[in-house]
Write a structure and sequence with these properties.
This protein has about 450 residues and is of the alpha/beta class. The chain folds into three domains: about 5-55, no CATH class; about 60-190, 3-Layer(aba) Sandwich (Rossmann fold); about 210-365, NAD(P)-binding Rossmann-like Domain (Rossmann fold, 3-Layer(aba) Sandwich). It is built from 18 helices and twelve strands. The chain has helices spanning about 5-20, 25-35, 35-40, 45-50, 50-55, 105-120, 140-155, 175-190, 210-225, 245-255, 280-285, 295-300, 330-335, 355-360, 370, 375-390, 395-420, 425-445, and strands at about 60-70, 75-85, 90-100, 125-130, 165, 235-240, 260-265, 270, 305, 315-320, 340-345, 365. It has a seven-stranded mixed sheet, with helices on both faces. It has a five-stranded mixed sheet with strand order 1-2-4-3-5. Helix 1 packs antiparallel against helix 2 and helix 9 (about 210-225) crosses helix 10 (about 245-255). The longest helix is centred in the last third of the chain and has 25 residues, at about 395-420. It is globular and about 60 Å long. The mean pLDDT is about 95. The site of NADPH dihydro-nicotinamide-adenine-dinucleotide phosphate has 22 residues, from helix 10.
């Protein structure tokens, strides 16, 4: 990957100084700044107007206490976050993550990436992200409800369809969005579907939102394979995670003729040489909220590898769909050595900088998260459009819109990579294309 341009390296040093200890945020910033050298040569006004410095500083950061009681009456205190990063293109938009690893640095890395991702979608949405160090795993429905109600009791004052519109992420799915929407309605006495996305279908949700991130990532890689006169047909694939993004990535790959042989969770890996049984995975994960290990109890031919490394399983297409930094340099080298020709990031920043370098050097089709997984937020924006128009679209119509958006994102990234002399480098293409639109809006809005 390119080194930092000397005009930009001072800006990065300042980011390190001003945000100590936030390593994931540093990593996300560095990855974008590495692409911007040729951009500031072409557009010196971005330096004069200090656009990069401003883009690295969130417009607003909210940190709050979330007290709640478990089923035994014991009191717990968690920490809630909402980072409203950039509203140049529209209201802040981005998910909420509930996971014990959450701290400010994670939310800021996600919020920063969200700015460029949302810009790439072509929809009128700014960038934000939030969440809590609350762990929904092993909690009863009532405990999750009490936590969500307490979380929303503080967050509601910062939200609004023209201000900030959260959605789901790790640990936040339809159940959590439902509890938060209910509490928002109760506190404000307003039925405002436009205040959250990922809602249930009977109360303002959109068809295809559940499937959108996984389907979108698969559409992106399908486009990248087409550039190489190739397709998913007959390809052996591995998909990390077994949550929302992983499940619908597997579904779309199977629809396009590929065969997913492995998925995972934070405890281990399931390997099913015959191809994963998606209906069983949905039953285990979406209905019964069980662990992926239980797959092997029903399918004796499948192997469960406790603490296994999914990237050691040979595949032609890999779709990391669990969490950040799950593919390191060694894993990336193993994938390439085993014949992997495409990597599509359903997760956010799942590949370390060393891993990214391996993929770019090998010139495989590598779709970085901020481009490849933008289908989720794009479909959230479609949900907002339907809410504003009091409308609900069919599955086919909405899926076609998603596919067109992913095709546009792919083409815009590809064309930008060509324009900047690195055809097929989607990292460069996504960073530059996403950045320029936000930067131009910031210049137009003046110094705010
Ligand atoms: P879910 O909570 O539905 O699923 C997360 C999956 O990843 C689970 O299988 C989980 O396993 C695994 N996982 C989470 N954290 C870790 C970890 N530290 N180590 C190993 N495995 C882990 O989340 P989503 O599917 O919604 O999100 C997955 C990724 O996709 C995230 O990076 C998210 O930011 C990104 N994303 C999601 C979007 C969406 O629309 N949902 C949109 C764009 C990006 P376990 O159960 O063991 O924790």
């Amino acid at each position: 990957m390119a080194k930092l341009d000397e005009k930009i390296s001072g800006i990065y040093q300042d980011v390190l100084k001003r945000n100590p200890g936030e390593t994931e945020f540093h990593q996300a910033v560095l990855e974008v700044l590495e692409s911007l050298g040729p951009v500031v040569v072409k557009h010196p006004q971005y330096l004069e107007r200090k656009i990069i410095e401003r883009i690295c500083e969130p417009e607003r950061q909210i940190i709050f206490r979330v007290p709640w009681q478990d089923d035994k009456g014991k009191v717990h205190i968690n920490r809630g976050f909402r980072v409203e990063f950039n509203s140049s293109l529209g209201p802040y938009k981005g998910g909420l993550r509930f996971h014990p690893s959450v701290y400010l640095g994670i939310i800021k890395f996600l919020g920063f990436e969200q700015i460029f991702k949302n810009s790439l979608t072509g929809m009128p949405i700014g960038g934000g992200k939030g969440g809590s160090d609350f762990d929904p795993k092993g909690k009863s429905d009532d405990e999750v409800m009490r936590f969500c109600q307490s979380f929303m009791t503080e967050l509601y004052r910062h939200l609004g369809e023209h201000t900030d519109v959260p959605a789901g992420d790790i640990g936040v799915g339809g159940r959590e969005i439902g509890y938060m929407f209910g509490q928002y309605k109760r506190i404000t006495n307003r039925y405002e579907p436009g205040v959250l996305t990922g809602k249930g279908l009977t109360w303002g949700g959109s068809l295809v939102r559940t499937e959108a991130t996984g389907y979108g990532a698969t559409f992106f890689i399908d486009e990248a394979l087409k550039v190489r006169k190739d397709s998913f047909d007959g390809k052996v694939c591995t998909v990390s995670g077994s949550g929302n993004v992983a499940i619908y990535t597997i579904e779309k790959i199977h629809q396009l003729g590929g065969k997913c042989v492995a998925c995972s969770d934070s405890n281990g890996v399931i390997y099913d040489e015959k191809g994963l049984d998606l209906e069983l995975i949905k039953q285990l994960k979406e209905v019964e909220r069980r662990r992926i290990e239980d797959y092997a109890a029903t399918h004796k031919h499948a192997k469960y590898i406790a603490k296994g490394n999914i990237w050691e399983i040979p595949c032609q297409v890999a779709m990391p769909s669990a969490t950040q930094n799950e593919i390191n340099g060694k894993d990336a080298a193993t994938l390439v050595k085993n014949g992997c020709i495409a990597v599509g990031e359903g997760a956010n920043m799942p590949t370390t900088p060393e891993g990214v370098k391996v993929f770019l050097d090998a010139k495989i089709a590598y779709g970085p998260g901020k481009a490849a997984n933008a289908g989720g937020v794009a479909t959230s924006a479609l949900e907002m459009q339907q809410n504003a128009g009091r409308d609900s679209w069919t599955f086919e119509y909405t899926e076609k819109k998603l596919q067109d958006i992913m095709c546009n994102i792919h083409n815009n990234c590809y064309e930008t990579s060509e324009e900047y002399g690195a055809p097929g480098n989607y990292v460069l293409g996504a960073n530059i294309c996403g950045f320029i639109k936000v930067a131009n809006a910031m210049v137009a809005h003046g110094l705010i």
